[in-house]
Design goal:
The protein is of the alpha+beta class. The chain has seven helices and ten strands. It has helices at 16-36, 40-58, 134-139, 144-162, 185-200, 219-259, 266-281; strands spanning 14-15, 61-64, 68-74, 77-82, 86-89, 95-100, 104-107, 111-114, 120-131, 205-217. Strands 7, 8, 9 and 10 form a four-stranded antiparallel sheet that branches. The longest helix is centred in the C-terminal third of the chain and has 41 residues, at 219-259.
């Protein structure tokens, strides 16, 4: 059976300046008693009272900056967490463990992993986190900062293996878009934050933000994948050009027929379509040839 996690609770503390005044007042009273009635009896009672009073008043003082907390323990027993900034006071026998509540920024190393399709890729992420539950961060894990680094690397590796780098089998026209590491940055970032939140929950860590900062194919396949992407881009461009050229040819033929400028049979229509497609789809400037004769012998 798993041990229940520690829950943070508020600690009892007081304004430290009040106890500074009380400690100084006790010191003056004890010094006055010893001065007025010098002797062994006055020293025997005055010195211990002075020592205990100063220890109780000044021994319990501690200072907290904004976004800083103090965990109070008594002989190993957790007594609560104080988040109030300024000069504070609590039981002099309490041990104070200070903990920063500020946001921390972590840039992961470039990790080499395999994506969903088994392609080796390089991936890195920037993660912003802060301590949300001080009791869990202090008592439920050995070292919460080392825990964050280890779990962040595991989460990034798992994320990379859960998605493909890019949709290489994606058709030119499709209805359902596959979530990929390269194209779906918002979805991938949300998935990373969700996984980090689950992994950090044991240590009481809150994920403020998480985004990929580096994503690339591994060097051994980067050149091949680049040529593939270039070929896909050329095919997509050519497809769009041909699609537009067909529409323009259809528009030209319909316009000539409706206005009755020329009467074209099937063979002449085929020749005109061929010439127009060559002009519209060619990479070079077209050189027109004026035909003064006829297509028929």
């Amino acid at each position: 059976m798993d041990r229940p996690s520690t829950q943070e609770r508020a600690a009892r503390s007081a304004n430290g300046f009040i106890y500074v005044v009380i400690g100084l007042a006790l010191a003056l009273v004890a010094a006055g008693v010893i001065a007025q009635r010098p002797g062994p009896l006055a020293v025997a009672f005055g010195v211990p009272i002075l020592f205990l009073g100063e220890f109780w008043c000044f021994g319990g003082l501690y200072m907290l900056q904004p976004n800083q907390a103090a965990l109070l323990t008594l002989f190993g027993s957790y007594r609560g967490t104080d988040r109030t900034p300024g000069l504070r006071w609590s039981n002099a026998f309490y041990t104070k463990h200070k903990l920063s509540m500020r946001a921390h920024n972590f840039n992961s190393e470039k990790l080499k992993v395999n994506d969903l399709r088994g392609n080796p890729i390089e991936i890195a992420a920037a993660i912003v986190w802060r301590v949300r539950d001080t009791a869990r961060a202090r008592f439920d894990v050995e070292d919460f900062e080392a825990y964050v680094l280890t779990q962040a690397e595991a989460a990034v590796r798992h994320l990379a293996s859960s998605y493909a780098y890019d949709n290489l089998d994606e058709p030119l026209v499709h209805s359902a878009r596959e979530i990929t590491l390269r194209a779906s940055t918002d979805e991938v970032g949300h998935a990373l934050r969700e996984e980090l939140s689950v992994r950090f929950a044991l240590a009481g860590i809150e994920v403020v933000d998480a985004k990929l900062t580096h994503l690339a194919y591994a060097p051994e396949i980067a050149g091949t994948m680049l040529r593939r992407q270039q070929a896909e881009a050329v095919i997509a461009a050519r497809t769009k050009i041909v699609h537009g050229a067909v529409g323009m040819v259809e528009l030209a033929l319909n316009g000539l027929t409706e206005r009755g400028l020329v009467s074209l049979d099937d063979e002449r229509k085929a020749a005109m379509v061929s010439n127009l497609l060559v002009v519209l789809c060619s990479d070079h400037d077209a050189t027109p040839i004026v035909n003064a004769g006829t297509l028929y012998v």
